[in-house]
Putative ecdysteroid-regulated 16 kDa protein (Nyssomyia neivai), 172 residues
Amino acid sequence: TANLHQLKERIKEPTMKFSVFAVTFALTCFVSLSQATDVGQCQGGKKLEATDVTISNCEKPPCKLRRKSEVSIEEKFTPDRDLKTLTTTVHAEILGIPLPFIGVDNTSACDNLYEEDGTTKAGCPLQGGKKYVYKNSFKVLEIYPKTSLVVHWALTYDNKDVTCFEIPAKII
């Protein structure tokens, strides 16, 4: 009986290890397959590919921006020339009127730039032809009215768009 008990324990251990591995692997695959967000193109900015922009909790427009929450943005891009610095330019267009996003608009993008791997900080200056990942987030303030809008998000150099996208959204 003791040998039978030991045999059962030996069988359980690899099975448990495999189960933990399988669950971990499945979760890793799920997280890494997060969906890109379907964004629109701005005039003047570099054309972004369909997989270049990811907005948290938003795969397709309109994005639902919940008040008292934080939304994260990730954008993959390759500048076509060397850039000394980069500025984040963000506004919401409501009834044709551009309103800046408080705390994000007209701020340096340099602290939010990463190498292509998405984890190694890159900062500024940027090299033309090299791939970068821009990561940022913004708070949807409680004072924002519940309304529909278009978010205009650009990375600019010398007041000209390097990349730019627009996406319909709704503050809820």
Summary: Confidence is low (pLDDT under 50) at residues 15-33. The longest strand covers residues 160-171.
